[in-house]
Amino acid sequence: MQEMYTYLHRAKASGIDLENLRIYASSLSGKPRYGVIYGEYPTRAAAKAAITHLPAPLRTSQPYPRQVIRLR
Protein backbone atom coordinates (compact mmCIF):
# COMPACT_ATOMS: atom_id res chain seq x y z
CA MET A 1 0.00 0.00 0.00
CA GLN A 2 2.89 2.38 0.73
CA GLU A 3 4.00 2.04 -2.90
CA MET A 4 0.62 3.36 -4.04
CA TYR A 5 0.87 6.40 -1.77
CA THR A 6 4.35 7.06 -3.10
CA TYR A 7 3.10 6.70 -6.67
CA LEU A 8 0.20 9.10 -6.04
CA HIS A 9 2.53 11.65 -4.50
CA ARG A 10 4.89 11.36 -7.47
CA ALA A 11 1.97 11.67 -9.91
CA LYS A 12 0.63 14.77 -8.20
CA ALA A 13 4.10 16.35 -8.06
CA SER A 14 4.51 15.64 -11.79
CA GLY A 15 1.45 17.73 -12.53
CA ILE A 16 -0.80 15.10 -14.10
CA ASP A 17 -4.55 15.46 -13.79
CA LEU A 18 -5.50 13.23 -10.86
CA GLU A 19 -9.11 13.32 -12.03
CA ASN A 20 -8.09 10.94 -14.85
CA LEU A 21 -6.22 8.56 -12.55
CA ARG A 22 -7.85 5.33 -11.35
CA ILE A 23 -6.34 2.72 -9.05
CA TYR A 24 -7.61 -0.82 -8.70
CA ALA A 25 -6.63 -3.65 -6.40
CA SER A 26 -6.20 -7.27 -7.45
CA SER A 27 -4.08 -10.23 -6.49
CA LEU A 28 -1.58 -12.42 -8.30
CA SER A 29 -0.76 -15.80 -6.83
CA GLY A 30 -2.42 -14.71 -3.60
CA LYS A 31 -0.33 -11.55 -3.27
CA PRO A 32 -1.99 -8.13 -3.38
CA ARG A 33 -1.13 -5.87 -6.27
CA TYR A 34 -2.36 -2.55 -7.58
CA GLY A 35 -2.95 -1.26 -11.06
CA VAL A 36 -3.19 2.29 -12.31
CA ILE A 37 -5.39 3.48 -15.15
CA TYR A 38 -4.86 6.93 -16.58
CA GLY A 39 -7.40 8.31 -19.01
CA GLU A 40 -9.50 6.73 -21.71
CA TYR A 41 -8.39 6.48 -25.33
CA PRO A 42 -10.28 5.52 -28.49
CA THR A 43 -7.51 3.24 -29.77
CA ARG A 44 -4.46 1.38 -28.53
CA ALA A 45 -2.29 3.64 -30.71
CA ALA A 46 -3.74 6.73 -29.02
CA ALA A 47 -3.01 5.24 -25.59
CA LYS A 48 0.57 4.40 -26.59
CA ALA A 49 1.07 7.92 -27.89
CA ALA A 50 -0.24 9.36 -24.61
CA ILE A 51 2.26 7.28 -22.64
CA THR A 52 5.12 9.05 -24.39
CA HIS A 53 3.77 12.37 -23.06
CA LEU A 54 3.61 11.28 -19.42
CA PRO A 55 6.12 12.95 -17.11
CA ALA A 56 9.39 10.99 -16.87
CA PRO A 57 8.89 9.95 -13.22
CA LEU A 58 5.67 8.15 -14.21
CA ARG A 59 7.20 6.44 -17.24
CA THR A 60 9.75 4.72 -14.98
CA SER A 61 7.09 2.22 -13.96
CA GLN A 62 6.87 1.14 -17.63
CA PRO A 63 3.19 1.85 -18.29
CA TYR A 64 1.44 0.04 -21.11
CA PRO A 65 -2.06 0.20 -22.60
CA ARG A 66 -4.71 -2.22 -21.35
CA GLN A 67 -8.27 -2.80 -22.47
CA VAL A 68 -10.78 -2.21 -19.71
CA ILE A 69 -12.38 -5.57 -20.45
CA ARG A 70 -9.06 -7.26 -19.57
CA LEU A 71 -8.75 -5.70 -16.12
CA ARG A 72 -9.46 -7.99 -13.19
Describe this entry's structure for a reader.
This protein is of the alpha+beta class. It has one domain: Alpha-Beta Plaits, CATH 3.30.70. It starts with a helix and ends in a 13-residue tail after the last helix. The protein contains 3 helices and 2 strands; from the N terminus they run H-E-E-H-H. The model has no long low-confidence stretch (mean pLDDT 86).
Q: Can you count the helices?
A: 3
Number of strands: 2
The helix fraction, in percent, is: 25-40%
Strand order of the largest sheet: 1-2
The major pleated sheet works out as: 2 strands, antiparallel
β-sheet strand percentage = 15-25%
Tally of structural domains: 1
- According to CATH, the homologous superfamily is Sporulation related repeat
Structural class: alpha+beta
Oligomer: single chain
Summarize the structure.
The chain is of the alpha+beta class. Helices cover 35% and strands 22% of the residues. It starts with a helix and ends in a 13-residue tail after the last helix.
